[in-house]
Queue: 2 jobs
Job 1
Amino acid sequence: MTIRTIITEPDKLLRQVSKPVGKVGKKEQELMTDMLETMYAANGIGLAAIQVGIPQRIIVMDISKEENKKEPRFFVNPIIKNKDPYKATYEEGCLSVPNQFAEVDRPSKCEVEYLDYNGNKQLLKAEGLLATCIQHEMDHLEGILFIDYLSKLKRSMIIKKLSKLKSSTLEV
Ligand code: ZN
């Protein structure tokens, strides 16, 4: 297991569209394990492979809040099958957009078809935080960040802040 480096905005890699996984093999499982460790270490609830620089359609998630009751979930090649027309609003954050939070509206329920850790086909019927989280992560596969849903002004303010943060860390 290796904790990988999480890429933060602004970075062109985060805007890349990820490619479907051909087969879930040992290499992909290793990546998922690393991603899960990386996500836990950063106190996140979801992580897409592109956030550690790998443009593959792989997501790990764990929305359980309790430390001793971990519920890791793995999604390979996820596809949204159904979306509820009713929207729900959550305050979202992102490990690639550190310390920035904003309310985003998304379909309140969705059905997602995907391959699990062992490469078996699964269907997830999600609602609440789970539905929001999987849609946020699936956006990463298309190169979309939650700040893209904000006004141009808000988004550019956040990007400016993050760029400043980056350049100041480089000076150290
Ligand atoms: Zn994110």
Job 2
Amino acid sequence: MTSTMLQIPARPFPYTLRPGLAALVIIDMQRDFIEPGGFGASLGNDVSRLQAAIEPSRQLLEAWRKRRWPVLHTRESHAPDLSDCPPAKRERGSPPRRIGDPGPMGRLLVRGEPGSEIVPALAPRSGEWVIDKPGKGAFHATSMQALLEAAGVTQLVFAGVTTEVCVQTTMREANDRGYDSLLVEEATESYFPAYKAATLEMIVAQGGIVGWTATLADVLGAIGES
Ligand code: TIU
């Protein structure tokens, strides 16, 4: 860990990254959202769009790992008995398969099932935090805040899916808890391009009301990764 601060060109203004105190938070890069036959597909989405976020997220992950900076992965998932899944979440709408129903990757959004796993390119390694979360926000009903506080993490750099659902919800939760949050543009994706674009704008509006956005090249360049 070093105390030298790094300036990342960002919107709405440069982001000052404190090496070692900024965790990379990769939201829900699970097969259930990215591959056919999972939860995202059951909601009627074209899941192929989300694959674009894998390689940029992998480059961030590699950069953080190389520097031994903290990394946190999240998985939206439920206990096998669905005791942590509010009926309102399971019963909403009329999807062909609901949370907990069997599919080609096992039971949808259930912990331990193949679909719940993070895609192989981003698989967590030992020493990295993995948070299973029942909600869209990663702070809700998890140990995330306690874990970050215990480690002295004060900043969060975000990647993952989907931009306007779990990523934005978690960034807003983080903002209210005092974390400076930066979203890396190419490392996040949505099933709806317009919603991704709108979310990036919402984050930086009003002087960074939620946080910052930056390009992958600007983040990697600022931390010395060519
Ligand atoms: N449906 C959708 O866009 N997202 C989710 O349900 N969860 C996450 O964003 N991870």
